[in-house]
Amino acid sequence: MNVKPLLIIPLLSIFAAYPAFAEQPEDYNFPRECTTTKAGYPVPLCGKPLTKTPVIVKQKGDKQLKKYPEHFIPENETLADNEMRITVVGSGNPPVRRGQASTSLLVELGNGDYFIIDTGGGTVPALWSLRIPLASLDKLFVTHLHFDHVGGILNLWDSMGWARNTPLHVWGASGFTPELGVAAFVENIQRAGAWHTLSKTGVIPGGGMKMVAHEFDGQQFTVEKPQALVYNENGVKIYAFPVDHILIGAVGYRLEWKGLSMAYTGDSIPTIFEAEQAQGVDVFIHELFIDAPTFSEKNSMPLKIAESVVNEHTSADMLGRVFSIAKPKLGVGTHFFTNEYTIDPAFAGIASTYNGPVVIAQDLMVVNVTPEQIVTRMAKTDLLSWAAPAPRAKGKKRPKLDPAPTEGRTQSWVTKTRFKRGKTE
Ligand SMILES: [Zn+2]
Ligand SMILES: [Zn+2]
User: Fold this and answer.
1) Residue 363, φ and ψ in degrees, nearest 5
2) Are 149 and 120 in contact (CB under 8 A)?
3) Which residue, among 232, 221, 352, has the nearest Cα to 274 in the 3D structure?
4) Element of type H or E holding 387
5) pLDDT tens digits, 198-246
6) What is the pLDDT of residues 399-413, one digit of tens each?
7) What spacing in Å lies between the alpha carbon of 204 and ligand 2's midpoint?
8) By three-state DSSP, how is residue 277 classified?
């Protein structure tokens, strides 16, 4: 019996019934209808930011406030000369979830600069979907070396590398011993990539296959000198300061440019010290953790282990206290498990110690900061996105390929049996 018609006809009828399926994958960004929680916050994954204050007016003047579309669509908006856009690329924890990857931020400035801060596991697909010219994504700052903050570095190094064709620059602190610092981490990653790098030599340009560590002294900080200027170019100043996260070498960053500012502290048990380092910034992004009983129950984790993890992090009421001292114009809680039932208790906890504007981050939440206002939205990106067009500088020659390795290649008795490309026999 010929079975072909039986297989083909039902498949064709499925595609005919859903012609839009292959055309608009971006529609699947927000799978939930925007109902609200009991306390009136949008439910996660519905396309609205988790906040009641999506627009904050910093200063009222004669100037008409910039109006933004409901969603941020990559390539549809250009930044003003004095505008900053912060995207929470990943808002989650070590367990990488389909709707919430680990931790990563992108800071874009109106002068054309891009800064990635942390690149946790699972976060690079979202970064890639923002359609940024890949050569621009060459500056990574890491807060600390937990994999939920650096686990995406292989993807960042690799998937952006061919188009970048220049090294990936990585800033971070030294540790208590040399092997605990960012320089050793970068060196070891490159060593572990020996097969990967050699196999691509002669196939794609090699300039993007290098990483350069910019390690700063993680033990230089004192009460008298609490922060250090670790980047100062193109009018952008980035300061590092220590945070209380288990080992020496965990830091937070404060970025300042054209009177706009943001701070991000990575992971920490909050301290008055770190709150002071972020004093008065426009946007202060700080970790937030769920309570131990929920963490234990939902992750099937013994309560004792859940408690020891939770005790290294920031509870909702502690986050409110941090924001009360730092007084940011917008406080952002991230590194949180954003399930529908965790949102209300978190906002209630924060509100018990703080009454300023707060948002809890989701993946691809976008915050635009100008001298006049701070606007929070969700980005809508293509789930099947391609690389962004890369403008080639005039007169710049196409990079040459390095010679491919001649030794250690696949055995000749295997390659002799290769199919001939384009031939049927
Ligand atoms: Zn973390
Ligand atoms: Zn950590």
Assistant:
1) -60, 135
2) yes
3) 221
4) none
5) 999 999 888 888 999 999 999 999 999 999 999 999 999 999 999 999 9
6) 789 999 999 999 999
7) 35
8) helix
